[in-house]
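seq/struct pair 1
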Amino acid sequence: MIYLNPEVVSGLGEDTFWTWFKREFPSASFGVSARLRNEDAVLQYSTLGFVNRGGKSIGLLWELYPEMKEQLKSNQWDSRIAKVYECARFSTYKTVASHLMIPFYEQFGAIDVLPIGVNTDLFKPLPEKTSLRDKYNIPKDKTVGIWCGTTHRMKGFDKLTAYANSNPDIYWIIVWKWEAEAGFFPGASNFTKVKQQTLCELMNSADFFLCSSMLRPFYMVEWEAMACNLPMKILDNMQKDFVPSNNPRDDVFRLNWDRKSTKKLWTNYLERKGVTW
């Protein structure tokens, strides 16, 4: 039996790893039984620390707090990092989604790299760029960039602003996570808490995606943009998981981040670890 123990299943109603995993492995269940058998396993989100219930535990060390601490030179997230390290220390197996994160956890033992997976059936190139720009009232005679995020330092909103000021001819689509921030970028097409299909259409309305992150691993929204085959502009030569090619959708499949490949990799991994479901 597989037990799923996320911090948040789906914050904005999107089809996350958790909802996808439950659908693809229907015998899995949310929550954790009071006592686990040896063949059972918990997929444990790292910020929840360690659940000591017997059986096996697979720590999902996806949160980037250690990376944030290093890149932003702050102790702000130390209490969260303590829980993440607790999960890494005591979990039977430890997984990360980016090879760049291995050095933060290798002190706790072997680290496995597994994809989270992106929905390439939903996030894909669409041929209707002109009609999509009409739909969302986006200029058809402009070069259009898209940026997604918040004003949190790690998202690099200040770098977006500087780049936009240096390139005044670019029109911007800005997709915010929080409504309170929607007025922070006047003169652009600002959207908040959009559905995934809308996000795909907005991405396909743009000419490129701007990566301004202060952190090295790609965010899920950047994987989604690549699945739409959107050219990626990475600021400041920031080291990332890889350098996207001229056809980033091909990169998604090459790196097994499409959900079909992700399911195969996770299935093989669980079988090797002796987990039944």
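seq/struct pair 2
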Amino acid sequence: MPMVFLAYFDVRPVLFIGGLPLFIALCLVVCWYARAGFGKWQVAVFAAVIYSVLFAFFLTGVGPFVGRKQIREYLMTWEIRPVPSNGMKESEVVLSFVDFPGYFVGEFSDILATHLRRQPGREVKVLFEVTSDYGKVRGFRGLEIAGLRDWKPEWGYSGASGSPERSPWD
């Protein structure tokens, strides 16, 4: 239980404050061992600057590894459930991935349901904006479904049924 509690805190300040003196000490030891002709203060200041820049680059979202956005296109089948679940007032649209059986995305939107009913078939192209941190997907949002770009969902969800081998988010 205590580990779950820690998930609500940002540990980056602790990592920065704890790691800075360790990095400076490591740099001092390396310079002493290598018999470099630098003064202790020069090494300490240089190490602090390097550590701060690297920390900001890799752990604060400044670098290219955090918040990376991609646009992905998937072929999906759609179905409109006859009665919305969970007490929602709008139509429930369930989109299932063609190439990733078992994965689905649901939205409660009358506008989207009306648009999909006008489509000639059950397969549509869907564009997603996928946000990832260090190669792991943080989240996604639908940008376009069968040419429709502007719809206001009441609520949305995603999930998987069974134990699919591949994921659309990998």
